[in-house]
Design a protein that fits this description.
Number of helices: 7
Shape: globular
Order of helices and strands: EEEEEHEEHEHEHEHEEEHEEHEEE
Number of strands: 18
Bound molecules: FE2/S2 (inorganic) cluster
Helix content: 10-25%
Structural class: alpha/beta
Strand content: 25-35%
């Protein structure tokens, strides 16, 4: 669910960027300037009532007339990407939240190495364009199955960005699948690493960066797919509903939201993956095991709210504001 400050936008342009990727340019219906953002930011898009998905912004952060997103149709789409691909056209009206940035560029640490796989190019395309325009030193390794399946391939090749990019196409004879072992040595000459792509790819890059000697704080990751449920690591705990004093047990195989719903307590579920913040619930006591991709580090450090669709407890009981 988007908050009351959501912005109504209209689709001004829809362009196919790869066989399963469309980009959308969204302009405000009010004609007012859009809230500004920084490279790496995303917006929450309400595709239909109750369906909210986060998408990275790839356009020029200085352009306050439009937000540009690129959407890959997910094979497991539960109404998000498939609805955008199939039912959203030029002229469609959508609601979006103000930009949020969980993938910030550190302005101090230079030079930077970027690694993107598949649709993970979206925030990195924005970040590297921004750095290129400022004459900063960086390199980008972009992995895809082929040039045809690489969103923004033409734009990269026809711009100055091309001189900074190495493509890794696993299906093309012209180039090679990324060799992270070989890259490990090169990594050492960069101050920071930024990576975005599927979970397995990100895990491999992070392990390579760790072997190359990077501290976790210097490896920045962006994953817009819910983390694995990690059921095998879960333990049971209790939630106490502050308003009634009722105590519910959350077993390892169920989320807090599921147990609440089974007991007639509704929370505003949308993505169910810790991405959209719809289910955000106040916490009055207990230690939270945050597993979302929505709250910032600063918001987490307040220990006063969590996303019951995926987050759990580190203490034996959480007292929640319901
Ligand atoms: S439902 Fe989206 S964060 Fe919980």
């Amino acid at each position: 669910m988007l908050d009351k400050d959501a912005i109504t936008v209209q689709v001004a342009k829809k362009v196919q960027r790869a066989p399963d990727v469309y980009s959308f340019e969204l302009v405000p219906t009010s004609g007012a300037s859009l809230p500004e953002y920084t490279p790496g930011a995303h917006i929450d898009v309400e595709i239909e009532a109750g369906i909210v998905r986060p998408y990275s912004l790839y356009g020029d952060p200085g352009d306050r007339t439009r937000y540009c997103i690129a959407v890959k149709r997910s094979a497991e789409s539960r109404g998000g990407s498939s609805a955008l691909h199939s039912h959203t056209a030029v002229g469609s009206i959508l609601r979006v939240g103000a930009p949020r940035n969980l993938f910030q560029l550190n302005s101090e640490a230079k030079p930077r190495m970027f690694l993107a796989a598949g649709i993970g190019i979206t925030p990195i395309f924005c970040m590297t364009n921004w750095l290129f325009q400022r004459g900063e030193d960086f390199c980008l390794h972009y992995s895809a199955r082929s040039s045809r399946e690489a969103a923004f391939y033409e734009e990269i090749c026809s711009s100055g960005l091309r001189g900074h990019v190495t493509f890794h196409f696993s299906k093309d004879g012209s180039s090679q699948r990324i060799d992270l072992r070989a890259l490990e040595q090169r990594m050492r000459s960069f101050a920071e690493i930024y990576v975005c792509g599927p979970a397995g790819y990100m895990k491999d890059v992070c392990e390579t960066a760790h072997r190359a000697g990077y501290e976790p704080a210097n490896v920045h990751c962006e994953l817009f797919i819910g983390e694995d449920p990690r059921v095998e690591e879960n333990s049971s705990f209790e939630v106490e509903l502050a308003k009634t004093g009722k105590i519910l047990v959350v077993p390892p195989e169920h989320s807090v939201a599921e147990i609440l719903n089974q007991n007639g307590v509704s929370v505003g579920l949308s993505c169910g993956q810790g991405l959209c913040g719809s289910c955000l619930t106040g916490v009055l006591a207990g230690q939270i095991d945050h597993r979302d991709r929505y709250l910032t580090e600063e918001e987490r450090s307040r220990h006063d709210c969590f996303t019951p669709c995926c987050s759990r407890a580190l203490s034996s009981r959480l007292v929640i504001d319901l």
